[in-house]
């Protein structure tokens, strides 16, 4: 009898202490918090958490709401998707794990408790995709003749829809030319200069050599990383030569520098020749030939003639040639009077400070606009600009007046001893 009473007492205590674990519990299970919606980049892991209290002997299940596919019931995974697993903590926190989410994993997920009627709550899994370019609908490097037009296309895909913009890699502005409404294609158009252009298509019309270079197509949608594509536009045109000084004078024995500026695309073959022989000049002891790039299409040609001699005087030609044409321009080199390196001058004279100025520098000194010496293609005889001058330090000059002043300064010094000697002689004679 005593043992029976003890058993009933133990059951009563168990019901009081563990009401939810005996016969379904004294309280119905319920959710203690909502399921958080998830936004996960493609390929990352996602975890839904369902919070439950008073679960008792009931069970928790997971269902993908849009397909009605059961994912898991309590501790057992039902779906054949090997990337799906479940876990729980103290029967109050139930987790659904999806590893390496794919696009098809996106949608509404439901956490259920098998009560009667069933209790459930849902959470949304949104899959975001970083931007990427469609290679079949995106332009590659292009070549266009100067004055022509080109259309660049950049198609990007991603979730959400990417934003596409254009910039120049060198930081320069993009020139947009749009014809006025109702105007013919060859008439004037509205020109704007922008640092960034928005849109999948970039149309460049009446393109110039200065617009040559790399254009960047940038796609972003807030999902890192943003992506960019480099598209190089190569603008072709025949060579053009600009000569700053077409007439250069220098004294014998000095070093002379001749220069030409060449613009060409594709890059031209540049060389120097001297008339009337017409032989190409190459670097040697007497000559130094250099070509210094200034931009993708511009080169500075420099010819240095060392220790100028009589036979070096004459006409020099700088020439450029590419697949679209050829051009040349003349520079006449002549002798001017002046000291050579073998002559000796007073110590304060520094021969290295001498500078040979051509017509362009003379124009600057006289505040006159410089002569435009640009040569396009083959042209007729060149118009000779104003004569070059040579400006250096002033040398000491000796003229008649300065000589007379010198005599006057030295005369008292020479005569004073002679007068004294004459007086002494006369005194001695009288004695």
List the helices and strands and how they pair.
Elements: H1 2-17, E1 30-33, E2 38-41, E3 46-53, E4 60-64, E5 69-73, E6 76-77, E7 84-89, E8 93-98, E9 107-113, E10 119-133, E11 142-145, E12 150-153, E13 156-159, E14 163-168, E15 174-179, E16 189-194, E17 197-198, E18 201-204, E19 213-220, E20 227-242, E21 247-250, E22 256-265, E23 269-274, E24 279-281, E25 287-295, E26 298-305, E27 314-322, E28 325-335, E29 355-357, H2 359-365, E30 374-376, E31 389-391, H3 400-430
Parallel strand pairs: 2-10, 11-20, 21-28
Antiparallel strand pairs: 1-3, 3-8, 4-5, 4-9, 5-6, 7-8, 9-10, 10-13, 12-18, 14-17, 14-19, 15-16, 19-20, 20-22, 20-30, 22-26, 23-24, 23-27, 25-26, 27-28, 29-31
Domain Ig-like: 29-126, 131-228, 238-334
Signal peptide: 1-24
Keywords: Cell membrane, Disulfide bond, Glycoprotein, Immunoglobulin domain, Membrane, Repeat, Signal
What does this structure look like?
It is a single chain. With 431 residues, the protein is mainly β. It has three domains: 24-129, Immunoglobulin-like; 134-236, Immunoglobulins (Immunoglobulin-like); 243-391, Immunoglobulin-like (Sandwich). Helices cover 13% and strands 44% of the residues. The chain contains three helices and 31 strands. The protein has helices spanning 2-17, 359-365, 400-430; strands spanning 30-33, 38-41, 46-53, 60-64, 69-73, 76-77, 84-89, 93-98, 107-113, 119-133, 142-145, 150-153, 156-159, 163-168, 174-179, 189-194, 197-198, 201-204, 213-220, 227-242, 247-250, 256-265, 269-274, 279-281, 287-295, 298-305, 314-322, 325-335, 355-357, 374-376, 389-391. Strands 11, 14, 17, 19, 20, 22, 25, 26 and 30 form a nine-stranded mixed beta sheet that branches. Strands 2, 4, 5, 6, 9, 10 and 13 form a seven-stranded mixed beta sheet that branches. The longest helix is centred in the C-terminal third of the chain and has 31 residues, at 400-430. The chain is rod-shaped and about 140 Å long. Mean pLDDT is 80; it is low at 11-25, 342-415 and 417-431.
């Amino acid at each position: 009898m005593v043992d029976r009473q003890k058993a009933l007492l133990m059951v009563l205590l168990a019901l009081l202490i563990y009401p939810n674990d005996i016969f379904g519990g004294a309280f119905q299970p319920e959710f203690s918090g909502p399921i958080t919606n998830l936004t996960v980049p493609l390929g990352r892991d996602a975890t839904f958490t369902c919070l439950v209290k008073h679960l008792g002997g009931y069970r928790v299940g997971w269902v993908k709401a849009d397909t009605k596919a059961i994912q898991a019931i309590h501790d057992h995974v039902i779906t054949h998707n090997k990337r799906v697993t479940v876990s729980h903590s103290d029967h109050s926190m139930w987790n659904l794990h999806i590893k390496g989410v794919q696009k098809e994993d996106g949608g509404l997920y439901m956490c259920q408790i098998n009560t009667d009627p069933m209790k459930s709550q849902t959470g949304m899994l949104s899959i975001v995709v970083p931007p990427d370019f469609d290679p079949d609908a995106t332009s590659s490097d292009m070549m266009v003749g100067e004055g022509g037009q080109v259309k660049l296309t950049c198609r990007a895909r991603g979730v959400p829809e990417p934003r596409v913009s254009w910039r120049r890699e060198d930081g320069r502005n993009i020139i947009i030319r749009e014809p006025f409404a109702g105007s013919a294609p060859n008439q004037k158009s509205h020109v704007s200069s922008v640092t960034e252009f928005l849109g999948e298509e970039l149309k460049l019309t009446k393109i110039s050599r200065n617009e040559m270079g790399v254009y960047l197509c940038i796609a972003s949608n807030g999902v890192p990383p943003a992506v960019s594509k480099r598209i190089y536009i190569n603008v072709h045109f025949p060579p053009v030569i600009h000569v700053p000084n077409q007439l250069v004078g220098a004294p014998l024995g000095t070093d002379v520098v001749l220069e030409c500026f060449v613009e060409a695309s594709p890059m031209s073959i540049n060389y120097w020749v001297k008339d009337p022989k017409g032989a190409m000049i190459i670097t040697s002891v007497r000559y130094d030939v250099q070509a210094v790039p200034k931009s993708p299409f511009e080169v500075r040609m420099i010819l240095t003639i060392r220790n100028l001699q009589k036979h070096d005087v004459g006409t020099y030609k700088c020439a450029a040639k590419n697949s679209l044409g050829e051009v040349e321009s003349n520079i006449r080199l002549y002798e001017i009077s002046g000291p050579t390196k073998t002559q000796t001058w007073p110590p304060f004279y520094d021969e290295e400070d001498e500078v040979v100025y051509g017509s362009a520098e003379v124009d600057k000194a006289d505040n006159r606009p410089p002569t435009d010496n640009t040569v396009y293609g083959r042209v007729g005889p060149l118009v000779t600009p104003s004569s070059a001058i040579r400006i250096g330090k002033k040398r000491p000059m000796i003229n008649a007046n300065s000589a007379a002043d010198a005599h006057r300064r030295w005369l008292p010094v020479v005569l004073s001893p002679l007068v004294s000697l004459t007086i002494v002689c006369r005194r001695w004679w009288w004695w």
